[in-house]
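dude i think i finally got it to work??
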Amino acid sequence: MQSIPLALDGFKPIICVSMSDLPIEADGQPSHLPPTGSAGANRLYTATLHLLFEGYSITMFHACRASSRVEARERVSSRVASHLMADVEIHHGIDLGHPVVRRLVPSEIAHRLFVHGDCSLQWRPLQHGGELHIQERAGA
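look at this
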């Protein structure tokens, strides 16, 4: 599995797309995959977390494809400390009006997740077992 950090102008959260077994063509570029339409969006699960403690705040968004809410919780648990998992909200699909989504997820990516169930229409990392993880830490 490889992690690919994304840099966005004027946007400071840590953003990471983790991809595993992404098909690569001979030229070294990810292969173009056919669209999945609403079937991909139906298997999309997202997780949100917002904590304030001792002058620090942590805000997190996580997206993956899973067969159930339980599987989605297991996948996000690899990125969140076990004592914080009780504060993680798991959502089937993506709630575009959720405060964490509005704060952390760039609108174009949020729209792709909502309509297509993936963050990149060209690579389809979530379709191939990848995850989108965005985290912001701020404070003293």
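Residues 2-22+31-139 form one domain.
im so relieved honestly
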